[in-house]
Amino acid sequence: MATNHPKLLYLIVELLKELEVSFVICPPECPEATNASIVMTTAEEVNQSPLENKLILDVGFNPDLIGIELRSRLSGIETPTTAFIGIDPGMSYGIALVLQGVPIFQRVHKSPHEAGKLVLALAGYVHTLFPQCKTVVRIGRGSKVFMALLLRELETHQDTIRIELVNEDHTTLSGGHNADTVSALIIAGRLGHPVTDHDLVITDKSGNIRIIKNLVSRLTQGQREITTDEARAVIAGDMSLTSVLDIS
What is the pTM of this model? Predict the structure, then answer.
């Protein structure tokens, strides 16, 4: 990190710690970091550094986008042709981005709305960094209700990203805090089939009504309890989950 900017330095350090990437801190004019794979600096300081392979940042940088760029550069990924985003739907949505067989980004979201937003953001980041790279989103079929809720979030974007549904057999290999993202990584590497209208349908039965009610209660930390009629409206697609949760 070749910068004297205190706030940017703090933000970069926090990001690199989260990514578990080793780093050194030096002033921009310092030639001692010649072994660095990437030199992070500012537009104002870039000409002060004699080092190559610079990554120019400011305090408003997007940590997810920069994290993906860092991981890609450190892995030697320059011109990927296809990015795979794997998603393991359930009470928690495991999400993983894979480029050239390398896991680049992993995260877990509890809400299908937030999971959908992240998937679209990841596709956008890939396009920003690698304009010629296409994105394939692969979603596990193991949990029909949670799969359908996510598909509804992505439905209007199927003209810009390719979505496949994947068999989840043998994708749950371990327990623990990272089980969802491990499953998402496996899903990202499996061939799937295109989405049909039937895949967005949730059957109106008591178990599914209970799932929707429990999901709303969990996402609102018990602050919102919906009626059976509201749950049925969500299941039928007459009411979106985001409107029930009052998400803009």
Answer: 0.91
